[in-house]
Design goal:
Layout lengths: L3 E2 L2 E2 L8 H14 L3 H15 L5 E3 L1 H7 L3 E6 L9 H15 L3 E6 L3 H13 L2 E7 H6 L1 H9 L3 E5 L3 H13 L5 E3 L10 H9 L1 H14 L5 E5 L4 H7 L9 E9 L10 H4 L1 E5 L2 E5 L24 H9 L2 E7 H15 L5 H16 L5 E6 L7 H12 L1
Parallel strand pairs: 4-14, 5-6, 5-8, 6-7, 9-10, 9-14, 10-13
Antiparallel strand pairs: 1-2, 3-4, 11-12
This protein binds pyridoxal-5'-phosphate.
Length: 389
């Protein structure tokens, strides 16, 4: 069925949005093969965004752990400081080709908002970004960055879930001239496919780079999973390479109890949120349970539908990393490699370190370092301050 990954996905939206989603699907299919679009996107990826990002051998960390070789895919070096640029640039350009003048988006950590503001500015589009007040509070620098870049920031009560609700509401009344630039592989069809395709540049580059450096594919690729876009981008080009283990890491937060984590792939069940059937954190009556994570970018009670499918088929393994482990990994990578990772990406570092210990010295792990961690300094310092008291 159209827009489904097994039983997950679909288009569960109010009728008023159907024509917009159909239009988007139609244009996307057409434009993705269009040479002018592809050339322009490659141009912006390379000259504006800084692609390809390096695949860096984390020698110090590898030696310290004493197990498998750990490589870092440096999406933190991309313009804006996170992988979010790949999708924002792709969709903003798509919107421009579709003749839309206004972009709306939601953001959690603010990274997608910043990427949207950057892409809209360079293409001369008007951007308005919805953000929950909880996230705006913990990511104030990103709010300021969006404003400096010329975007309007609309603060709503709550976190990412509420921001998406508001963006969808806005879109219902403005579809003729507005493109809704969703920031992860979530939402109704065709978004999970579009976002995955734009992010797959990560996995394609990993393949070429690791073949160049090591002459073979990695034994494992590890990435954090919020909505799931950086992980999907890294994993998708390797789905058919069964010898490559794909490991997604969700936010274990403060523990396994409801409301303490953001790990619907571990603790969730089938439900519908934001236009798609997927795994959702919910109670027995189907009420969505508020998620929690120390990292704003993983604080979401659902996940992209393709991840739910990949979990059920067993092709991707999903784990959790807890807040305290995440802070330790953040500090560890900063001190050993001189790279401050985003708290989101630090979830992947936690798991990669655990895996590397169990693996041989000749084995290879690639970690998708989805973003830089400057935005999280205050959060980390606050936690460390509380611990020292
Ligand atoms: C640096 C970084 N990594 C990961 C994520 C999680 O998003 P996704 O799971 O879509 O990659 C975010 C979200 O804001 C982010 O800012």
């Amino acid at each position: 069925m159209k827009g489904f990954f097994g039983e997950y996905g679909g288009m569960f939206v109010p009728e008023i949005l159907y024509p917009a989603l159909e239009e988007l699907e139609y244009f996307y299919r057409k434009i993705k093969k269009d040479r002018k679009f592809r050339n322009e996107l490659s141009y912006y990826f390379k000259n504006f965004g800084g692609r390809p990002t390096p695949l860096y051998f984390a020698k110090n960390l590898t030696e310290k752990i004493g197990g498998a070789k750990i490589y870092l895919k440096r999406e933190d070096l991309l313009h804006g400081g996170a992988h979010k640029f790949n999708n924002a640039m792709g969709q903003a350009l798509l919107a421009k080709f579709m003749g839309k003048k206004r972009i709306i988006a939601e953001t959690g950590a603010g990274q997608h908002g910043v990427a949207t503001a950057i892409s809209s500015a360079v293409l001369g589009l008007k951007a308005e970004i919805y953000m929950g007040n909880v996230d705006a509070e913990r990511q104030q620098i990103n709010v300021k960055r969006m404003q400096i870049l010329g975007a309007g920031v609309r603060i709503v009560k709550g976190t990412l879930k509420e921001a998406i609700n508001e963006a969808l509401r806005d879109w219902s009344g403005s579809v003729e001239y507005t493109h809704y630039l969703i920031g992860s592989v979530v939402g109704p069809h065709p978004y999970p496919t579009i976002v995955r395709d734009f992010q797959s540049v990560i996995g394609r580059e990993i393949r070429n780079q690791i073949l160049d450096i090591e002459g073979r594919l990695p034994d494992a690729i590890v990435a954090c999973v919020g909505g799931g876009s950086n992980a999907m981008g890294a994993f998708y080009p390797f789905i058919k390479d069964r010898e490559v283990r794909l490991v997604g890491v969700q936010a274990g937060g403060k523990g396994d109890r409801p409301g303490m984590n953001s790990a619907p792939l571990i603790f969730g069940s089938k439900g519908i949120l934001h236009g798609a059937r997927t795994k959702v954190l919910q109670d027995e009556d189907g009420n969505v349970i508020d998620s929690y994570s120390i990292s704003a970018g993983l604080d979401y009670p659902a996940v992209g539908p393709q991840h739910s499918f990949l979990k059920d088929t067993g092709r991707v393994e999903y784990r959790v990393a807890y807040d305290d482990e995440v802070i330790n990994a953040y500090l560890e990578l900063s001190k050993t490699e001189g790279i401050i990772p985003a708290l989101e990406s630090s979830h992947a570092i936690v798991e990669a370190i655990k895996m590397a210990r169990e693996m041989d010295k000749d084995d290879i792990i690639v970690v998708n370092l989805s973003g830089r961690g400057d935005k999280d300094l205050e959060t980390v310092l606050r936690v460390m301050g509380n611990e020292n008291r």
